[in-house]
Design brief:
With 252 residues, the chain is mainly α. The chain contains seven helices and no strands.
Amino acid sequence: MRSGNPALKESTFLDLGSGTVVSRPDQAMTLNGTANKTGLLLLLATLTGAFAWSQALTPTGEIAPGFGIYMWGGMIGGLVLALVTVFKQEWAPVTAPLYALVKGLALGAISAMYNHMFEGIVLQAVMLTFGTLFAMLFAYRSGLVKATENFKMGVVAATGGIMLVYLATIVLGLFGINIPMIHESGLIGIGFSLFVVVIAALNLVLDFDLIETGVERGAPRYMEWYGAFALMVTLVWLYVEFLRLLSKLQSR
């Protein structure tokens, strides 16, 4: 089993010391535990996001000079903590909350910027993100969407292609070169954003599947934090993509 989310992979739920899963039920991962920890991570991100929002705007509603500190600091710090968590899953009880706190700073600043340009867009993006989360969870639990091997391969391939496009955008941007159309508000740009939103949403299905697999295999308790972190990664991506899509729609 594979997930487009780099935080989740086939070996994720194996005990790192022995290569086997935990056998004692009182030490094993649970769905309720993962759900509770996901809620806690979202709360932590919301708290620091609200703080960054207040600091990113001046009293007159303009973007504050220190806006970039919260955005870039949160993005870089979040990336470092995410990498540490991916490679040291047993540290997740500490690194996952830190990731949520730091990532919240970036999301707060980014949200303030988008809301400054398009008032009300942040509330729309939040509602769409959580609406998508619950819709995909319902579809997965009801069996409407099944994480078959072909489904997984398609989502993973599409996710990899999107990441390559974003990487190329960053690298080319360093040389002053912009990839035409896909980042603009034309039909192609909107279509690209819709495609990315769909792929991000489908990654939620893969995340649900792997977390459920971890519970069934009796993964160690700390993997509840890791599973919550993995869901957080996908939700952050989905939220940012909704902001991009809505901004393109409102720019037309």
